[in-house]
Here is the input.
Amino acid sequence: MTASLIDSIGWTLLHFTWQGLLIGCTSAAVLALMRNTRPEYRYNVACAALLACVLWPAAELTLRLQDGGASAAHLRFADQIMAGARADDASLAGWLQERLLWIVGFWSVCAALLSLRMAAGLAWIRHASQAPLADAEWQARAGRMASAFGITRAVRVRVVDDLDSPLTIGWLRPVVLVPASLMTGMPSDLLEALLAHEMAHVRRFDYLVNLGQNVVEILLFYHPAVWWISGRIRTEREQIADDLAARHLGEPRRLARALSELERLQFSSHHLAIAAAGGDLVTRVRRLVQPDRQALNWKASLPVLGLVAACVSLYAHAGDERAAVTPALAKVAPVADFSSCAKPVWPAASFKAGHTGTVTLAFKVGEDGRATSSRIDKSSGDALLDEAARAGIMKCRFKPGTENGKPVAAWMNMKYVWMLKDDD
Here is the structure.
């Protein structure tokens, strides 16, 4: 059971290398085409791509653990894709198979370390949520702003010393952490603009989505496409929050000035919290001040070309695979059931003379599982042994061969070994 589980996890992780590449190229091409649409739409596409990065390997792992007949063709095809060129399939697949334990072990250790990092981040968040509350005036402003955003939960504003940018943590009882340096050194109207940005995150439950992203990054840490998609989600999320805050304030330039102030600071980027300083601040400021249509960058064509090449390669490989796999699945040879008969009797003369050898036999098995005819394809060197093996096995029942799932009469070959034990 343990070996089967390791094999299933290992091959699922390996197959995600090309699955993730396919998802990444597809999402990059779609996002390039959507470059001038609203950030909400691009955000949804990126989230769907990240979800696909989870569901595809999860579905494959489930099929492998079930090891059902319905999944056999899919898994065999996936294994061939992973192996690459047909001439090297067996060698590469065998080389990977021998190292699955190390692959799964390395993945487990790295995932455990990243999980500890996430646990440490959650512990910091728990500690930061106990920071002192801001004064009554800012609590009142936060309350009014939350009502304007349609937030029914109470939002607290707390002041933290060792922080350079406002952060949002929690979702049931959301808290906005504000650096002490901003409370005293930033004009109140600009700080209010940053607070509006954080309220947008609270309204959209972005903290929960960000936690989910961190879990996916832990499980699939080894694939660059996962990090790119997750980073794109964070970029689009910040633009959405900017748009919501700008609409609330009615002054996009005020939010742009507030972000410009932050850009001059050495802000933190805590990976579990939602920060106003997230994303490319210069790009966000330019977008707020002077929104403009984006021209198609030549770099955007690279994922499209990669996607086309991958699709052509998969299609060509699938054609070869169908030719190789389908016949193997369509025709199944008969199998002898040795529990249904006694072992062939050793001829007395051959036993006395100490004759041994291996005889190759062929049996034609009918649809009812009984042998209807037989022949000796290769002798053991003793005619008596050959005939004893043929006659004895003819009495056995067989599992009939099948074609397209239906029993058919078919020939099967087998070898029978006559071997004397030391104590005979």
User: Anything to note?
Assistant: The radius of gyration is 34 Å.
